[in-house]
């Protein structure tokens, strides 16, 4: 992916055009889903989709005036810093509240994008349009108001600060949780391979500690280099990288620490118990924060973790 800070003016406009089209399609998908139960809310999303199409026309006209008719396809997935949302067609539990939260996060992300993009251009026409679009996205707060007046109770209404918290969850907490999952599962094979190859608890501990710390360093650098934080407001990349790296190392050290016990089988049984606890916790995390049904998450993590675990034992006994 390319860093947002490396985009030129034509690429920024091309990205904005594709983003407006993508957002319009998402809003239409929401409208289609809500049509039967909440026709008034569906109509609001149709209006929002039409507004996004209008924004795309403004951007396209300006792009053609400045750079010609050919517009390269540059999408958010091609640029570091954007949230990787679950595709709408894969969302199984699309309640009105869930849809509203997703829409508000999209608006906040678009507002930040246009604000940051406007600061990166010296062309007065491009800057003026980007700032105009930023204000339009900020003005979408009427969405929450319109939906809330008719369908949402006070205890589930989302304020601007709540949208910020939701964005923080997606951009900060989830990467840390992914680090925890990666560290927990990826270290199983080397740890148990060393355990059953040597039957030496201290040597096994050293291997597990090395694998955990090594995975933490790797994940930390990967997170730090993935996004400079300017577009998303995720903070300094090295702070995020350190956090992700620590969470990854913790995920591996959990089932490594029992091998500080001198008795091999006591340490191994305790480590296996901790592995099951970790896999259960990871399944719950995926269910709670990543919209994955618990049974599916548990099956995926349990099967994957069990295969890695067996691979380690098989290699250690080879």
Give a short overview.
The chain is mainly alpha-helical. The protein folds into 2 domains: 2-158, Ferritin, CATH 1.20.1260.10; 172-317, no CATH class.
Sheet with most strands? 2 strands, parallel
The CATH architecture term of the largest domain is Up-down Bundle
Domain unit count: 2
CATH class of the largest domain: Mainly Alpha
Q: Over the alpha carbons, how many angstroms does the gyration radius reach?
A: 24 Å
Approximate shape: elongated
Can you describe this structure?
This protein has eleven helices and two strands, in the order βααβααααααααα. It has two domains: 2-158, Ferritin, core subunit, four-helix bundle (Ferritin), CATH 1.20.1260; 172-317, no CATH class. The protein is elongated. The relative contact order is 0.10. It is 74% helix and 1% strand. The longest helix is centred in the N-terminal third of the chain and has 29 residues, at 39-67. It has a two-stranded parallel ribbon. It has helices at 9-34, 39-67, 96-119, 124-138, 141-150, 160-186, 188-198, 201-226, 237-253, 264-289, 294-317, and strands at 2-3, 79-80. The chain is mostly helical and 318 residues long.
